[in-house]
Design a protein that fits this description.
Blueprint: H1 9-22, H2 26-42, E1 47-48, H3 51-58, H4 62-74, E2 78-81, E3 90-93, H5 96-103
């Protein structure tokens, strides 16, 4: 049986044009999709990944990954936790739009 790729409509309808078109950060969108997929497949809330892993798995450069992550953290779409300065970061993709939907 084939895997079916399902996205929250907000991700493609709003987040894609916002990050890629408005912020001009396609790398941020790709990093968000990658992290969201890793979390969904692993049935977890967060995933640990080094910059090298993110770069190899997405095909982006490390600097593009860093720029994308800065944008995602600033926009509060990803939370980054580190146990120490040299530890592999743990990324939690956030869905702030889901909280707004529940409040309405």
């Amino acid at each position: 049986m084939k895997d079916i790729c399902r996205f929250d409509p907000y991700v493609l309808d709003t987040l894609l044009p916002d990050l890629v078109g408005h912020d001009r950060q396609p790398s941020a969108f790709l990093v968000y999709l990658y992290l969201a997929d890793r979390v969904t497949r692993g049935r977890a809330r967060a995933c640990a990944a080094s910059l090298s892993t993110l770069a190899v798995d997405t095909g982006l450069s490390k600097s593009a990954i860093q720029r994308g992550l800065r944008t995602l953290v600033r926009r509060r779409l990803v939370r980054v936790d580190r146990r120490s300065p040299t530890a592999v970061p743990v990324y939690t993709p956030l869905r702030p739009w889901a909280r707004r939907e529940r409040a309405v």
